[in-house]
Every structure is written in C-alpha cells, then in structure tokens.
Amino acid sequence: LEGTRWQYAHGVENEELLAPEAYYLDTFLFERGGNKEIQLDLFLDYQNNLKIYPKFQQFFRDTQIPSLIIWGKHDPFFIPPGAEAYKRDNPNAVVELLETGHFALETHVSYIAQRIREVIGDE
Fold first, then answer.
1. Inter-CA distances, 11 with 5, 8, 35, 113, Å
2. CA separation (Å) from 103 to 17, 39, 61, 98, 122?
3. DSSP strand E in the chain: where?
4. pLDDT tens readout for residues 46-102
5. Distance (Å, rounded) from C-alpha 67 to C-alpha 64?
6. Calpha distance 90→84 (Å, rounded)
7. How many DSSP H helices and E strands does the chain contain?
8. Most buried residue, 13, 45, 48, 90, by most Cβ within 10 Å?
9. Bridge partners of 98?
10. Which residues have CB under 8 Å from 23's CB, separation 6+?
C-alpha cells in the first residue's frame, strides 16, 4: 500500500486532492493472484517499447498531428525531458509540465480536460 500510495503522492503539492480510494483500489488489484508477475513482466517488456520509438517519432514528424503533452513535473518515472522530446519531432506539440507527480489526472483533471478541448477540440 505504501509503495502504491507513494506513486500517487510523490511530487503532489496538495495531497488532499488525492482520493485515497484510488491507491487503495490499485493496491487491492495488484494483490490478485498472479498479478505481481504480470506487472513485473510489463516492466521488463518496456524495452520493446523503446525499440519502436523511432516509428512513433517518425509518425509525429510526418503528420505534425495536434498534440497536447501534459506531464507531471515531479513524475519520478516519466521525467520532463521525455515530455519536451515531443517538440523535436512535432514543433506544433503543446507541452505543459504541471506541479504534480505521476498521476496528473488525480490532481488536475478539470484543467487537463479544459486543455484537451482547447488544443485538440471537443468534437
């Protein structure tokens, strides 16, 4: 529980914005039979994501698709340079680093929804 809670709370300015049921539910779901092994397999498999990054990067260079990249400035897993990197492949990408951690939607859902409508559209 404390490890999962840390993932939610690390880098968050106001922890009162976090709904405890979110990290309690995650912890409960992690404890299902076989799930820890599945999670470890997913972490290990991340290396395969890295192998296809050039395809993602080429897609962004080719399409210049409207992109909103919102990141928690204090995310311990996906650090700010990862967000900024999108602008190398798509100079039109809008990158915003929020004063929060890994689960930005937990603390900034209304703001993020507003920015999606403004940058991407609401259709």
1. 12, 8, 27, 21
2. 11, 18, 28, 11, 23
3. 68-72, 94-98
4. 889 889 999 999 999 999 999 999 999 999 999 999 999 999 999 999 999 999 999
5. 8
6. 10
7. 7, 2
8. 90
9. 72
10. 1, 4, 5, 7, 8
Q: Is pTM beyond 0.70 here? A: yes
- Tokens of residue 95, six digits: 């990158």
**Token digits for 61?**
């260079």
Q: How long, in residues, is the chain? A: 123
The predicted structure's pLDDT at residue 123: 62
Residue 114: count other Cβ atoms within 10 Å of its Cβ.
12
Letter for the amino acid at 72? G
Residues with a known catalytic role: 102
Report how far residue 63's alpha carbon sits from residue 58's, in angstroms, rounded to the nearest whole number: 8
**Residues 23 and 5: beta-carbon distance below 8 Å:** yes
